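>> received
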Amino acid sequence: MRLSAIVLILAFGFLVVPRVAVAQLVAKVPQIGFLWLRSPLDASSHSLEAFRHSLREMGYAEGQNVAFAYRSAEGQVHRLPALAAELVHLNVDVIVVGETPAIQEAIRATTIIPIVMLTVGDPVEMGFVQSLAQPGGNVTGVGGLVNELNGKLLELLKEAVPGVTRIAVFGVPAHLPHFVTEMEATARELGVQLQFLVIRGADEFESAFNAATREGAGALLILPSPLFALNERRIAALTVKRRLPAIFWRRLFAEAGGLMSYGPSLADNWRRAAVLVGKILKGAKPADLPVEQPMKFELVINLKTAQALGITIPPTLLFQADEVIR
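>> returned
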């Protein structure tokens, strides 16, 4: 009897342990954290769907063998540290983060959890990685901009408004000095003068537009910055009100009523970020995954805004556009 009881207990134990182990394995689903500065990520957005599709190709499907944890500061920078801390507390397997302030907070929050960044200018200059080829640490990702972008923005703006001779340039103190020399060289080639206007906060938009129109600017170029990205709709409305054809690097600017946008395809960047995330979930270390540079750029033109401004976009430029808003 005693021997039979022992055998039964041992048999029961062998049956239970595997089930517990299986249950633990089932419960341990990899989790991807998202940290964003702007409004909450729309689960049906084109960029996020591109991320999901690319991730599925890597063998990970949301709700099946991977989970997402979204955190957004809804445009309020001061909320980022607490949101980054939440993701660290959740012990997510990787953090996908976009826009410079959010990237900075994610890096401050953890040196252990892998971070995949998006829409960032020069990650080496900003100190996020040691180099593009060998990032080091726990950060990799897809760069958002290239140095030649601002010159291209000038060229496109001049092509859209051939008669313009003076272009105002909005920039923030931290970034503007890095772009002046390159942009002035391009401006000389195009035969236009540049009026650089430093903007420190959203309360200076009106005065900057006043200065631009007072000095006779015929068009406006807005340099990359989170300050301008967070106020795209307001700036777009002001460009129409002040009758200033304008270009910015984010497509949301054109969608919000600005004349034009030209910059890296966010959907393509998200697809490539998903590949990096998939590699990390499979065991790769961020330090060994080179930071990728944008490969696909998109030009968006808002014809409704062109009509409101009373300008005609040359057919050759319309032909180049990836999307025309009518």
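>> The first strand starts at residue 31 and ends at 36.
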